[in-house]
Amino acid sequence: MYDNGNGVGVVSAALEVVACCVPLGVPVMTEEEADATARLFRTLGDPARVRIVNILSVAGGPVCACDFYDSLGLGQPTVSYHLKKLTEAGLLEREQRGKWAFFSLRSEAVEKLAAVADLQAGCP
Amino acid sequence: MYDNGNGVGVVSAALEVVACCVPLGVPVMTEEEADATARLFRTLGDPARVRIVNILSVAGGPVCACDFYDSLGLGQPTVSYHLKKLTEAGLLEREQRGKWAFFSLRSEAVEKLAAVADLQAGCP
DNA sequence: TTGACATATTTACGTATATCGATATGATCG
DNA sequence: CGATCATATCGATATACGTAAATATGTCAA
Question: What is the CATH number of the domain that holds A16?
């Protein structure tokens, strides 16, 4: 595996969480899938992270980490902590621009999240 | 407010969580909405509760509390605890049948969950 | 390379949560 | 009513989590 510059670590983390979880209505769910699915939901189970995702969604593109301090009313280390959680879960993508870090929603993760939460998917 | 026999307590709890949360992509999100939305996700942020929802989804109807002990590999008090969490969040409906308690997914909650997790809702 | 600035990590701490054993509540049947 | 069975609650405990202060890492400009 080579480094394509888009962050190998981030991609492998995504494989561990977002990629491993399954729709809630899946016919048969393994223990590992239940764990991964729960981890995805737990990642979104904090008001600060919900707001981060909302802000990124509304922005429609990359947002600087520094822009979250005021909007969230949280300190820099705390925001960094939440951004890392979201990124590790595979929901966010990190991009270095000069000395600033920009974050954006990963479209694959967005699609997966909707699929995971859709309980009526396979219903008649 | 009168008791229609479907459990007033459950309905008011639903109003407090499922009903109060908003889609992640909503243009403007209040602090209370972020809290409620995070609480909904946190409710699904446990493997046992994910499996309960999955089992109920596959079953397609009410399931007895006692049927979860073996499938989850958890003790009766713990299962009762998780069922209460899900019910309080407005995701489940409790129904007394003789001395047994049956639980089922609330269709409104199922729809709301899908809407909340759908980030592409208002996108072009 | 050094200084300045942005972000990440470490450390510490209080709170929330999941689990279990023991017990209480509630429902049915004799 | 009293016995029995199912579920809920309580008490205790161990772990996970969110937050901030202090510090480290990393990036650019001069």
Answer: 1.10.10.10
